[in-house]
Each structure stands twice: as structure tokens, then as C-alpha cells.
Write a structure and sequence with these properties.
Layout (H helix, E strand, L loop, with lengths): L1 E5 L13 E5 L3 H11 L4 H4 L10 E5 L2 E2 L15 E6 L6 H21 L2
Parallel strand pairs: 1-5
Antiparallel strand pairs: 1-2, 3-4, 3-5
């Protein structure tokens, strides 16, 4: 099954500027293993020392928070769009809200374009 992963600007310094990848993964653990293999510097930003998803990393699947879809047990479906969003502390909350809306808009545009 093929999914698309969007990598936000804040993490692209760890992916040599790659903004998206298409890969095959059945669940979040497999996705993180794929990302670990392609981008080793990204690994500590995705999982903690126990291998669990970082507390301040939000994962969205088709614009839905993965925590409400079953978390790490969620089974990806063919064509799912995954968005990784690291929490960024401080700053203006209006900016954070606007940034999230922009990410959602980009995901929607991408999904419509790829139909």
C-alpha cells in the first residue's frame, strides 16, 4: 500500500530539503522505520529512547489526528496522506493557528491535484 508523507519545513533540514516522500507502510511503526532508513538524522525527532512517538510530534492522516484514529495501531489505507507536525513552543498563537491552516490547505490542494 502506498502512502504520501509530507515533511514540514521545520524538519526538512534533517531530510536534505525533501518535502514529501511516497512509501509503503502498514502502520506508524513501519512508517517511522522507512523514515529512519531514508533520513537517519530525523529518527530522534520522531521517537523517544523507548521507541515511542515523541510527545511533541503530531501526526495527521488525511487531516485527522492519528490519536483519534487508533494511534500507533492505525492501519494505513492505500493513498493516505500523512503529515508530520512538530510542536513549536512559544511565539504567537495566531501564527501557529495560521501555520496549521496553511498545512491543511496544502494537504487538500495536493490531494485534489493528485486525483
Amino acid at each position: 500500500m502506498t502512502i504520501t508523507v509530507q515533511i514540514p519545513t521545520a524538519l526538512r533540514r534533517l531530510t536534505a530539503g525533501t518535502d514529501r516522500i511516497t512509501c509503503s507502510a502498514n502502520n506508524l511503526g513501519e512508517l517511522f522505520s522507512v523514515l529512519d532508513g531514508k533520513f537517519p538524522e530525523l529518527k530522534p525527532h520522531l521517537r523517544d529512547e523507548a521507541g515511542e512517538i515523541r510527545r511533541f510530534l503530531n501526526v495527521y492522516v488525511n487531516e485527522e489526528d492519528i490519536r483519534f484514529l487508533g494511534g500507533s495501531t492505525y492501519a494505513f489505507q492505500d493513498g493516505d496522506e500523512v503529515l508530520l507536525v512538530p510542536s513549536i513552543a512559544g511565539g504567537n498563537s495566531d501564527f501557529a493557528t495560521e501555520a496549521m491552516e496553511n498545512l491543511k490547505l496544502r494537504a487538500t490542494i495536493t490531494r485534489l491535484r493528485d486525483r
